[in-house]
Amino acid sequence: MSNLQQQRANITHIDGNLHQNKDARIGIVVGRFNAFIVESLVDGAIDALLRHGVLGSNITVVRVPGAYELPLVAQRAAESDRFDAIIALGAVIRGSTPHFDFVASESAKGLSGVATDYNIPVANGVLTTDSIEQAIERAGTKAGNKGSDAAMVVLEMLAVLSQLDVEDDYDARDDSDDA
Ligand code: INI
Is 52 a residue of the active site? Predict the structure, then answer.
C-alpha cells in the first residue's frame, strides 16, 4: 500500500445511519399561513419520521400563524429541553405577499440561529417559492415533499452528532491515559 493509500485508510468518516430513532424526541413547528400546502409538508414529515422508527408519542406538532413566528417558537421549543431536534415547516409564496423577502429571510435567519444557540439540529423545511404552483410541486407532487426531506435531515443530523459525541468520549479517555 502506498503512503497516500495508507493515509487515506486512516481517515475517520462519520456518516449518519438512520436506524436508531426510537428514542428521538422531535418537535415540528408549523406556520399555518398557506395551510393547504403546509399541511402536506406536515404529513410528509410525520410519515418519514414514523417510517424511520420515531415513536408517535415522541413527536409534538406546534402550530403558529406564519413563517415569521417560527424562529421564536423553535427557540422556546429548544429551550424547553423537550426535544432532540426541531423541524420547521411553512410556505412563503412570493405571489401572495409584498413582504416575501422579509418574511422568508427573517424566518431562515432566525431558525439557523436557534440551531447554533441551542446546539440541536433544526431543519428548515420552509418553502420559499415564486408561485403557488411551485409550492404545490414541492409539497408532495412532482418535486418531492420538503417536509419529508426536512425530517430526514434531522434524523441524519442526530445520527452524526451522536457519533461525534462518541468520538468526544474516546478523546476524553485518551487524554486521561496521557495524564
Ligand atoms: N407567512 C407565511 O408563512 N407565508 C406567507 O406567504 C406569508 N405572506 O404571504 O405574507 C406569511 N405572512 C405572515 C407572517 O408570517 C406573519 O404571520 C405575520 O406577518 C404576523 O407576524
Answer: no
